[in-house]
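Q: I'm a student working through a structural biology exercise. My instructor gave each of us a protein and asked us to get a predicted structure, then write a short paragraph describing it. Mine is DUF4351 domain-containing protein. I'm not confident about reading structure output yet, so if you can add a plain explanation after the tokens, that would really help. Here is the sequence I was given:
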Amino acid sequence: MHDQNFKNLILDYPREALAFFAQEETGEDLNHARIIPIRQEQLKDRLGDRFRELDVPLLVEWPNGDREAIVFVLEEETQSNRFSIHRLAHYCLDLAELMETDRVIPVVIFLNAGTRRDSLRLGGDRHSYLEFHYLACDLKRLSASDYKDSSNIIARLNLPNMNYPKQERLQIYLAAQLGLLQMEPNLNKQRKYVDFIDYYADLSEQEMIEYQTRYLNDKGEIMGFAQHFIQEGRQEGMYSLVTRLLRKKFGIQPKLDLLLAQLQTLPVEKLEELTEVIFDWIEVSDLTEWLKQHK
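A: Happy to help. First, here is the predicted structure for DUF4351 domain-containing protein. I'll explain a few features afterward.
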């Protein structure tokens, strides 16, 4: 699940991902670079061999000739203690051979802090014959307060994955939501990454109630950002909000999906009424009864 989430994130925003996860190597040179995803499954020596699959390998080229091309290997690791530096070294060596380059930079995104090996050395008492290490981004060791106003959408979407005081949880959630709305004009991607934020924020029901009370106005819009919903259509914005609240309340289930489809035909005023009663419900059947009464 986490692998797929971060693969989508990196492939949708490769320039921003490299600038955030691998700034030490990218610097400020990405504006003129061309970024090309590479096939993930490595070629086999024999058809029966097991294959090694990379999370997201990216080829970065500078057409103006400022720098020689570099291959970045981005790997998401959920549990640090399961990370294998040997496997990553294999990936990078295979890719270097396949691409006929020694310019390969491994980058590991650690979702949770923990112990792991930072380097690998092969050799004897007198000499080292292979030394390997990687760039690491420990999300839980980053301070969310340092990135809550960032202009990098990758940083803003990952605010819930960073370190912050418990009492600032809702402010961090809000900063992630606003970052998405401010920096991503595509409505489909907004929907996609609202789910990303919700998944990693994992607010409790009580926190959702508090968020609605403190940060949403009486139309269910984020305070100070109502114009966004006006531009995209109030009904569509309200339907998106109601969908998120209901999925948070009842989870993902087929019966709910059928009911959500019915909500699309409701006027915005009815959707606004719905946001006021969701948190009083216990079962999906409560939504069924509400729909019968308000059609």
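A: Here are two points you could use in your paragraph. Residues 223-232 have pLDDT under 50 and may be disordered. The two ends are 37 Å apart (CA to CA). It's a good idea to check both against the output above yourself.
Q: Great, thank you!
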